[in-house]
Write a structure and sequence with these properties.
- By secondary structure, the protein is an all-alpha fold.
- The protein has one domain.
- Helices cover about 75% and strands about 0% of the residues.
- It is built from 11 helices and no strands.
- Helix 2 runs antiparallel to helix 3, helix 3 crosses helix 6 and helix 6 runs antiparallel to helix 7.
- It is globular.
- The mean pLDDT is about 95.
């Protein structure tokens, strides 16, 4: 391999992905591989989803009602990520629906204050995921755990796809600092997440994969048409919408 070529994977990539996507105590991110490490986003999702599933399994074993068990698992997942994806969803909703021009939308998305659209998006997102998880825990603790981990991995694999296919909407921000993600990195992320979905959910993983891709395409279309590309907020919104779609696709 030539000196100026970037390896497809590196041992530090999982820690780099976790450092970018969570609040877990991991070694400092390798800033030279922030884009190349995007293949590990679904691996980070497997870890985060696994920890949330463990919290849910403990609650389920203790005999707590399914709605409360779902709330515990969801809360653990949000705390582990520092609610960064939820923040992206709120900013995206405020920006895309609160502004009439591209520049105004980007300006609103950059504002740290949350508006009406952002509040509504957060409430609906939390309610949807809680409802889906409640139904899944009603069906069984193992089913819910598998769905939670599958959704965490697949939804995070959707982000590198947009990072590889869409230009940056602004010359700054978290997504811009990560840099352009190579196509092969994005497809590797999707392959890892798809394999995990099939192993965890069986044939039910196929519609989950479909809805993850559908969510990414939908958000990507909106982002390109309304602000000309993707931002960190758009990526966060993609993860949230994909996670909701995946969880409901796995409700039996």
């Amino acid at each position: 391999m030539h000196k100026n070529e970037t390896a497809l994977v590196a041992p530090s990539d999982i820690a780099t992905a976790l450092g970018l996507l969570s609040r877990l105590p991991v070694p400092p991110a390798d800033m030279e591989r922030t884009a190349a490490a995007a293949w590990a986003y679904p691996v980070a999702g497997l870890i985060l989803g696994g920890l949330a599933a463990l919290a849910g399994a403990i609650a389920h074993t203790l005999g707590l009602p399914s709605p409360l068990t779902a709330l515990i698992a969801l809360s653990f997942l949000i705390l582990a990520t520092g609610a960064m994806h939820e923040d992206g969803l709120a900013d995206t909703a405020d920006g895309l629906w609160g502004g009439w021009t591209r520049d105004r939308r980007l300006e609103i998305m950059k504002d740290s204050h949350i508006g009406t659209y952002g509040v509504v998006a957060l409430v609906l997102s939390l309610a949807a995921r809680w409802a889906a998880l409640s139904l899944l825990y009603e069906a069984g603790g193992g089913i819910a755990a598998a769905a939670l981990i599958t959704a965490a991995a697949l939804s995070r694999a959707a982000m590198p796809l947009l990072m590889a296919r869409l230009p940056h909407a602004r010359a700054g921000g978290l997504s811009h600092s990560v840099g352009p993600v190579p196509e092969r990195t994005a497809w590797l992320a999707l392959a890892i997440a798809a394999l995990a979905a099939l192993l965890l959910a069986g044939w039910s993983g196929l519609p989950a994969i479909f809805w993850a891709l559908a969510a990414a395409l939908a958000i990507g279309f909106l982002a390109r048409s309304m602000i000309g590309g993707q931002t960190g907020d758009i990526l966060g919104a993609t993860q949230q919408v994909a996670e909701i779609a995946i969880l409901f696709s796995l409700v039996t």
